[in-house]
């Protein structure tokens, strides 16, 4: 138990740096998450707030969206649920003594409010105006339970009535509601209450959704747990193990994985260890527990105790909001309750988050660009992480390679901890005037300055945030691909007409559309006469496939830290050598320190050498599992670089493909070759291994791709559906790396703007 408390204390983080218009601090507000966005509405302190505030957890930025439509009045202690990108608001207090039973819908993709009017139930009356109720979503239905009503018609004469009625609200797909119904339930209903919590959890192995109600207020505070089997509509009181949290109201409950996390709230003031049945004396708490929903066992992470003077934990509060973003729990504001005797509610002014478990493994490391002594690499972002640990190992024995000196002290923090590396390069983008580039949520996503995006005036390239999967059919994505070249290179007439893709090649990431992906392979010299196909088995590059490489002699490899990076990209030219008696950071226990990189030697990458990479994400719980292994090779000096700034212009019966010469030709460019991935029987048997047909060879930096050629194109589905082109340059030594272009072929659902 002590270890659990210590772990919870270490994992809490207070957000101390943010930008944008911070909402005034409050209690009685509600919040939901749409991907990385926290959306907060209502509540108040000295008046009820009616603004909609959004906090981006990636960029640490607050903003006020420009809402329109049937904008609801401000409310507090209301119901607030999220279904995809629409949000529903029900009820709440709109002014002192006056409660609501209205329903408003917000389409967050357009920030459009609409008041909706559900049909009344076929039997009985619709829900009366109320506050402090629970409003939970599962599937296409919302479940309303309890709350507090005002029996008096005079709002100045508040006559409270606690409720335990239960309603179902059926939603229309996408937008709108159908109507209320009163389900026929079995078992004993929970007692009337308000300011309780309700969550819905469905076990993966059983597939039966259940609703859990915990705590609340009904003259005194409660800590009873109720379960509703939504399939059979049966209420029950599950037996629990462990220490049940103190009775409370105005707390929060959130489901992450199979756990219901309960934080804060009003709890009775204990007198000499006794809790009075009439809890006239009460206080705010910062206690933190979870209920394992599979075993119904309570685990106390932070017990009810005096305020944490070290400021390492969130302070006591009630009426706050708590939102889960992935496996991270965010808590914002609420009232602290300490000055009630002065008739002055003071609200907390802080935002905290807690990582509840280690992050999952990132995607495989992908190559953006290779040089003779460096790699520009990237991987897909993992939500809610603080950094990434990148490691490599090499084919050659490390002891046989010259080593550079000790790294500069400027690369480390003043405490001697490893620095969080951030790329300093920026991306050059050439976009038509009508194109809007939304880098919202990607402030830390830098790419090298030698990566370009360009489209012609009659072609459309729409680049949006990572969640936006809408792509016009003529959207272009680039990769630089290299297959392995022999030292002799190509003869002038020997550029292959058909080129099998390298088995270790990586495709573009489906989660990054705000910059161009360029992956690198060196093209193998295959002597093929014009019109002749390569024999697939004979001419495959002699490299180990990734699926095999990840399992071959993994235990025998020595992994070396490249560094800890804040972003999901890195420029790798060196790595750190750990003393033989020390393990990597990934093998250290939680009690051991991260290696002091100031004391370690660095080693440069060598030309023509194969390196294997893996990456792990880091959050407040520690280093997560590593990705699958990727393998890349540094370039051999003297070959030309890859063509850049590829443009695709679509015409009625053809497309026009153009490019810029390599930035580093390493001699005179003798010719260019362009290739198109085509359909073959081999691809049907092995879709990860593309076959390319040469469609152009010459000195010009452009070519026409005819409709007849496009009719034979293979549509690659390894990421987003796309037709794939490759373009490479040749100098006196041979062909260098090829720039791979993915021409996206279908529209997908748009995301939040």
Automatic annotation (TrEMBL):
The protein's name: Host cell factor 1
Gene encoding the protein: HCFC2
Organism: Alligator mississippiensis (American alligator)
GO terms for biological process, alphabetical: chromatin remodeling
Stretches with biased composition (Basic and acidic residues): 481-491
All copies of domain Fibronectin type-III, residue ranges: 541-637
Annotated keywords: Acetylation, Autocatalytic cleavage, Cell cycle, Chromatin regulator, Cytoplasm, Glycoprotein, Isopeptide bond, Kelch repeat, Methylation, Nucleus, Phosphoprotein, Repeat, Ubl conjugation
A molecular-function term among this protein's GO annotations: transcription coactivator activity
Keyword Cell cycle: yes
A single GO cellular-component term on record: histone methyltransferase complex
Pfam families the record matches: Kelch_HCF
Location(s) in or outside the cell: Cytoplasm; Nucleus
Region of interest: Disordered: 467-493
